[in-house]
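Researcher: I'm preparing a figure for a lab meeting and need a structural model of a single chain. I don't have an experimental structure, so a prediction will have to do for now. The sequence is pasted below. Please return the structure as tokens so I can convert it later.
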Amino acid sequence: MSIPTLALYQGVHSQADFILGAGSDSGVLWAALSEVVVALAGIGTAVVFFPVARRQNETAAIGFVASRIVEGVLILVSVVSVLTILTLRHDVAGTAGADPASLVTTGHALAAVYDNAFLLSQSLMPAFNALCLGTVLYRSGLVPRILPTLGLLGAPLLLAVDLAIFFGVLDRTSPVVLLCTIPIAVWEFSLGVYLTVKGFRPAAVAALPPVPAVR
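Model: Understood. Here is the structure written out token by token.
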């Protein structure tokens, strides 16, 4: 979902005078809406997984819920920054006395907030998601082990390129970055398809230890 939204947000990044009224904002609004859905769906997915995942490893299950919540909150922060650009574009840019140079600077600053929130949410947090959920699924056998293996192998790659971006070693548009994100993308897509079509393996669910009783 992150790649299509980045394409829809392209006007915010590529047009220096976007905040002054250049281009259409319909794509930006659709992208913002889709990211809100992604944030809520990600948290909801973790909550749904939790009762089963905790029977295998409660620490990893809690970690997965926590990382999803962090991811969702940061996604919403990034959406707020983009919606703020649209608010300034409609309510301020066309008014008398508005300073175009200041508005452009503000627009660039808000776009930078989106980029940094994106790095910490939809780029960094999926690595922790894969480590937590991948560990549970690999050990439990709830799905074919090739699926969590993709996530467990892809997580260190994604973490490495995120650190490289963070320290300025790589640009976020570098082909190396795209290449290193492929395993995580395949893991998330294939897991979603498998669970939608087949669900958890019944025998593996039955073999899970019971939830410890609360004393």
